[in-house]
Amino acid sequence: MNPEMAIGIVAEYDLLGAAVAFVDTKEKDQFEVVLRGSKRKPYLFKADIRMFTKRKGGGDSQGYTRGHWVHAFEEHISYAKSLAAYHVATSRCFDQDK
Q1: Does 8 map to a domain?
Q2: Range of the structural domain that residue 81 is part of
Q3: Would 86 be classed as within a structural domain?
Q4: What is the rounded CA–CA span in Å between residue 93 and residue 98?
Q5: Does residue 54 form part of some domain?
Q6: Which of 63, 68, 28, 60 is nearest to 48 (CA)?
Q7: Taking the mean position of all CA atoms in its chain, how far away is CA 72?
Q8: Strand order in the sheet with 30-34
Q9: For the chain, what is the radius of gyration of the CA atoms?
Q10: For residue 75, what is the enclosing H or E element?
């Protein structure tokens, strides 16, 4: 990795209540993520499908398709919901002990 590019985390977004969707374009590699309560336009991402090629002489693929990215976001959004529910449940449990 280029040390000049290693600047660390610039921003962190909460995926609780977020939504992810395919974007219908002729390129077939774009998808968007809408954050809950955001007044901004949806974040538009582009999967680098140029990297999704077979290596010469091998069967390994590199890169990820738009479907892979959308599925990963869906899994992270689902985890954020589960984690929030866990925190609510445990806080109620410990509040009852007082």
Answers
A1: no
A2: 19-96
A3: yes
A4: 10
A5: yes
A6: 63
A7: 6
A8: 19-22, 30-34, 43-46
A9: 19
A10: helix 66-96
pLDDT in tens, 35-93: 887 677 788 887 766 655 555 555 555 677 888 888 999 999 999 999 999 999 888 77
Q: Alpha-carbon distance 73 to 86, whole Å?
A: 20
Number of domains in the chain: 1
Task: For 15-62, give the DSSP string.
Answer: -TT-EEEE---TTS-EEEEE-TT--SPPEEEE--GGG--BPTTS--B-
First CA to last CA distance, the chain: 51
How many of the other CB atoms lie within 10 Å of CB of 71?
A: 13
pLDDT confidence bin for 25, thresholds 50/70/90:
confident
What pTM value is reported for the model?
0.66
